[in-house]
Amino acid sequence: MEFGYPAVMEAEPNFNFANLAIRCADFAGRGNASPSCSDFPATAEPIPAITTAKGAPPTVVVGTRGDPATPWHYSHEMAAALGSGAVSITWEAAGHTAFGTSRCVTDLVTKYIVDLTVPADKADCPFVTGATTTAEQADTIFSTLGTDAQMGLLDSTLEAEGLTPVKAQCVGQAILAHDDARLTVHELLGVETPDLTLPRALAERSCG
Q1: What's the CA gap between 153 and 82, in Å, rounded?
Q2: Contacts of 96 (CB under 8 A, 6+ apart)
Q3: What is the DSSP code string of 44-59?
Q4: In a domain, 90, yes or no
Q5: pLDDT (tens digit per residue) in 63-119
Q6: Which of 5, 66, 78, 143 is the 20 to 30 Å CA partner of 189?
Q7: Does residue 55 lie within any of the structural domains?
Q8: Residue where a domain terminates, one of 101, 125, 149
Q9: Statement to judge: residues 172 and 120 lie in one domain
Q10: Domain assignment present for 54
Q11: CA angle 6–61–9, rounded 5-degree value
Q12: Domain range for residue 29?
Protein backbone atom coordinates (compact mmCIF):
# COMPACT_ATOMS: atom_id res chain seq x y z
CA MET A 1 0.00 0.00 0.00
CA GLU A 2 3.06 2.26 -0.17
CA PHE A 3 1.74 4.25 -3.10
CA GLY A 4 -1.94 4.24 -2.29
CA TYR A 5 -4.47 2.29 -4.32
CA PRO A 6 -4.62 1.96 -7.23
CA ALA A 7 -0.98 2.76 -8.01
CA VAL A 8 0.01 4.03 -11.47
CA MET A 9 3.75 4.13 -11.12
CA GLU A 10 4.55 5.00 -14.72
CA ALA A 11 2.52 8.19 -14.34
CA GLU A 12 4.64 9.33 -11.40
CA PRO A 13 8.34 8.86 -12.25
CA ASN A 14 9.41 10.69 -9.07
CA PHE A 15 7.05 8.87 -6.73
CA ASN A 16 9.77 7.00 -4.83
CA PHE A 17 11.85 10.13 -4.40
CA ALA A 18 8.83 12.17 -3.27
CA ASN A 19 7.90 9.59 -0.66
CA LEU A 20 11.50 9.47 0.59
CA ALA A 21 11.62 13.28 0.83
CA ILE A 22 8.40 13.35 2.85
CA ARG A 23 9.62 10.58 5.14
CA CYS A 24 12.91 12.35 5.74
CA ALA A 25 11.15 15.66 6.39
CA ASP A 26 8.93 13.92 8.93
CA PHE A 27 11.55 11.82 10.67
CA ALA A 28 15.11 13.00 9.92
CA GLY A 29 16.83 13.79 13.20
CA ARG A 30 14.24 11.78 15.14
CA GLY A 31 16.07 8.52 15.65
CA ASN A 32 17.80 8.30 12.24
CA ALA A 33 14.73 6.90 10.49
CA SER A 34 16.70 5.95 7.38
CA PRO A 35 20.32 6.18 6.19
CA SER A 36 18.88 7.52 2.93
CA CYS A 37 17.92 10.71 4.77
CA SER A 38 21.55 11.73 5.24
CA ASP A 39 21.43 13.84 2.07
CA PHE A 40 18.38 15.78 3.26
CA PRO A 41 18.52 18.72 5.69
CA ALA A 42 17.68 17.94 9.30
CA THR A 43 14.10 18.50 10.35
CA ALA A 44 13.52 21.30 12.84
CA GLU A 45 13.18 20.27 16.47
CA PRO A 46 11.01 20.16 18.39
CA ILE A 47 8.04 19.16 16.24
CA PRO A 48 5.88 22.28 15.75
CA ALA A 49 2.63 22.14 17.67
CA ILE A 50 -0.66 22.05 15.78
CA THR A 51 -2.61 25.20 16.52
CA THR A 52 -6.18 26.29 15.93
CA ALA A 53 -6.70 27.71 12.47
CA LYS A 54 -8.68 30.78 13.51
CA GLY A 55 -11.02 32.08 10.82
CA ALA A 56 -10.36 29.14 8.48
CA PRO A 57 -13.23 27.15 6.97
CA PRO A 58 -13.79 23.72 8.54
CA THR A 59 -11.05 21.21 7.72
CA VAL A 60 -12.07 17.63 6.92
CA VAL A 61 -9.55 15.09 8.22
CA VAL A 62 -9.87 11.53 6.88
CA GLY A 63 -8.44 8.53 8.71
CA THR A 64 -8.43 4.82 7.87
CA ARG A 65 -8.60 2.63 10.96
CA GLY A 66 -5.96 0.20 9.66
CA ASP A 67 -3.67 2.75 7.98
CA PRO A 68 -0.04 1.56 8.29
CA ALA A 69 1.44 4.96 7.43
CA THR A 70 -0.68 7.56 9.24
CA PRO A 71 -2.21 6.09 12.43
CA TRP A 72 -5.97 6.44 12.51
CA HIS A 73 -6.32 7.81 16.06
CA TYR A 74 -4.38 10.91 15.09
CA SER A 75 -7.13 11.99 12.69
CA HIS A 76 -9.44 12.81 15.62
CA GLU A 77 -6.62 14.55 17.46
CA MET A 78 -5.74 16.56 14.35
CA ALA A 79 -9.34 17.74 13.89
CA ALA A 80 -9.59 18.71 17.55
CA ALA A 81 -6.28 20.60 17.42
CA LEU A 82 -7.24 22.48 14.25
CA GLY A 83 -10.51 23.72 15.72
CA SER A 84 -12.60 26.12 13.60
CA GLY A 85 -15.21 23.42 13.07
CA ALA A 86 -12.74 20.82 11.80
CA VAL A 87 -14.20 17.30 11.60
CA SER A 88 -12.81 13.80 11.16
CA ILE A 89 -14.09 10.89 9.06
CA THR A 90 -13.20 7.24 9.64
CA TRP A 91 -13.07 4.51 7.02
CA GLU A 92 -13.34 1.10 8.68
CA ALA A 93 -10.71 -0.50 6.46
CA ALA A 94 -6.98 -0.98 6.00
CA GLY A 95 -4.41 0.63 3.74
CA HIS A 96 -3.31 4.17 3.05
CA THR A 97 -5.74 6.75 1.58
CA ALA A 98 -9.53 6.48 1.48
CA PHE A 99 -10.67 9.29 -0.83
CA GLY A 100 -11.16 7.81 -4.28
CA THR A 101 -11.10 4.30 -2.82
CA SER A 102 -14.03 4.27 -0.40
CA ARG A 103 -17.19 5.44 -2.14
CA CYS A 104 -18.63 6.56 1.21
CA VAL A 105 -15.62 8.75 2.02
CA THR A 106 -15.43 10.05 -1.54
CA ASP A 107 -19.09 11.12 -1.44
CA LEU A 108 -18.72 12.92 1.90
CA VAL A 109 -15.57 14.77 0.82
CA THR A 110 -16.99 15.63 -2.62
CA LYS A 111 -20.16 17.08 -1.08
CA TYR A 112 -17.99 19.28 1.10
CA ILE A 113 -15.80 20.46 -1.78
CA VAL A 114 -18.69 21.03 -4.20
CA ASP A 115 -21.64 21.94 -1.96
CA LEU A 116 -19.79 23.06 1.20
CA THR A 117 -21.74 20.46 3.20
CA VAL A 118 -19.56 19.72 6.22
CA PRO A 119 -19.69 16.01 7.19
CA ALA A 120 -20.76 15.10 10.70
CA ASP A 121 -17.78 14.96 13.04
CA LYS A 122 -16.51 11.39 13.51
CA ALA A 123 -18.64 10.16 10.60
CA ASP A 124 -18.02 6.45 10.08
CA CYS A 125 -17.81 4.73 6.68
CA PRO A 126 -18.14 0.92 6.66
CA PHE A 127 -15.58 -1.29 4.94
CA VAL A 128 -18.22 -3.74 3.74
CA THR A 129 -21.78 -2.58 3.26
CA GLY A 130 -24.14 -4.41 5.58
CA ALA A 131 -21.37 -6.18 7.56
CA THR A 132 -20.45 -4.93 11.01
CA THR A 133 -18.26 -7.66 12.48
CA THR A 134 -14.97 -9.07 11.20
CA ALA A 135 -16.63 -12.45 10.68
CA GLU A 136 -19.43 -10.93 8.61
CA GLN A 137 -16.92 -8.98 6.53
CA ALA A 138 -14.86 -12.11 5.91
CA ASP A 139 -17.96 -14.09 4.93
CA THR A 140 -18.97 -11.39 2.46
CA ILE A 141 -15.53 -10.97 0.91
CA PHE A 142 -14.14 -14.50 0.84
CA SER A 143 -17.10 -16.88 0.70
CA THR A 144 -17.88 -18.61 -2.58
CA LEU A 145 -21.30 -17.22 -3.36
CA GLY A 146 -23.84 -18.45 -5.86
CA THR A 147 -25.25 -16.05 -8.42
CA ASP A 148 -28.53 -15.64 -6.52
CA ALA A 149 -26.73 -14.77 -3.29
CA GLN A 150 -24.38 -12.39 -5.10
CA MET A 151 -27.33 -10.74 -6.82
CA GLY A 152 -29.07 -10.25 -3.49
CA LEU A 153 -26.00 -8.66 -1.94
CA LEU A 154 -25.44 -6.41 -4.95
CA ASP A 155 -29.10 -5.34 -4.95
CA SER A 156 -29.02 -4.31 -1.30
CA THR A 157 -25.65 -2.57 -1.70
CA LEU A 158 -26.71 -0.59 -4.75
CA GLU A 159 -30.03 0.36 -3.14
CA ALA A 160 -28.15 1.57 -0.04
CA GLU A 161 -26.12 3.78 -2.37
CA GLY A 162 -29.29 5.44 -3.65
CA LEU A 163 -30.41 3.45 -6.69
CA THR A 164 -34.05 2.43 -7.03
CA PRO A 165 -34.74 -1.30 -6.59
CA VAL A 166 -35.34 -1.72 -10.34
CA LYS A 167 -32.18 0.13 -11.34
CA ALA A 168 -30.15 -1.64 -8.63
CA GLN A 169 -31.18 -5.01 -10.01
CA CYS A 170 -30.35 -3.94 -13.56
CA VAL A 171 -26.91 -2.57 -12.63
CA GLY A 172 -26.18 -5.61 -10.45
CA GLN A 173 -26.98 -7.98 -13.31
CA ALA A 174 -24.70 -5.98 -15.60
CA ILE A 175 -21.84 -6.26 -13.11
CA LEU A 176 -22.35 -10.02 -12.71
CA ALA A 177 -22.48 -10.40 -16.50
CA HIS A 178 -18.79 -9.52 -16.64
CA ASP A 179 -18.11 -12.82 -14.82
CA ASP A 180 -15.30 -11.13 -12.88
CA ALA A 181 -15.29 -11.80 -9.14
CA ARG A 182 -13.17 -8.71 -8.54
CA LEU A 183 -15.92 -6.40 -9.78
CA THR A 184 -18.48 -7.99 -7.49
CA VAL A 185 -16.18 -7.82 -4.47
CA HIS A 186 -15.17 -4.22 -5.18
CA GLU A 187 -18.82 -3.17 -5.42
CA LEU A 188 -19.68 -4.94 -2.17
CA LEU A 189 -16.71 -3.31 -0.44
CA GLY A 190 -17.61 0.13 -1.73
CA VAL A 191 -14.13 0.37 -3.26
CA GLU A 192 -13.80 2.39 -6.44
CA THR A 193 -11.24 0.95 -8.85
CA PRO A 194 -10.63 1.60 -12.56
CA ASP A 195 -11.82 -1.96 -13.25
CA LEU A 196 -15.20 -1.20 -11.68
CA THR A 197 -15.77 2.50 -12.35
CA LEU A 198 -16.26 2.28 -16.12
CA PRO A 199 -18.45 -0.88 -16.20
CA ARG A 200 -20.64 0.53 -13.46
CA ALA A 201 -20.98 3.91 -15.18
CA LEU A 202 -21.96 2.20 -18.43
CA ALA A 203 -24.41 -0.05 -16.58
CA GLU A 204 -26.08 2.91 -14.85
CA ARG A 205 -26.39 4.70 -18.17
CA SER A 206 -27.88 1.71 -19.99
CA CYS A 207 -30.24 0.97 -17.09
CA GLY A 208 -31.67 4.47 -17.23
Answers
A1: 40
A2: 1, 2, 4, 5, 64, 67, 68, 69, 70
A3: PSSPPPP---TTPPPP
A4: yes
A5: 988 887 788 988 999 999 998 899 999 998 877 778 877 888 988 999 999 999 999
A6: 78
A7: no
A8: 125
A9: no
A10: no
A11: 20
A12: 1-48
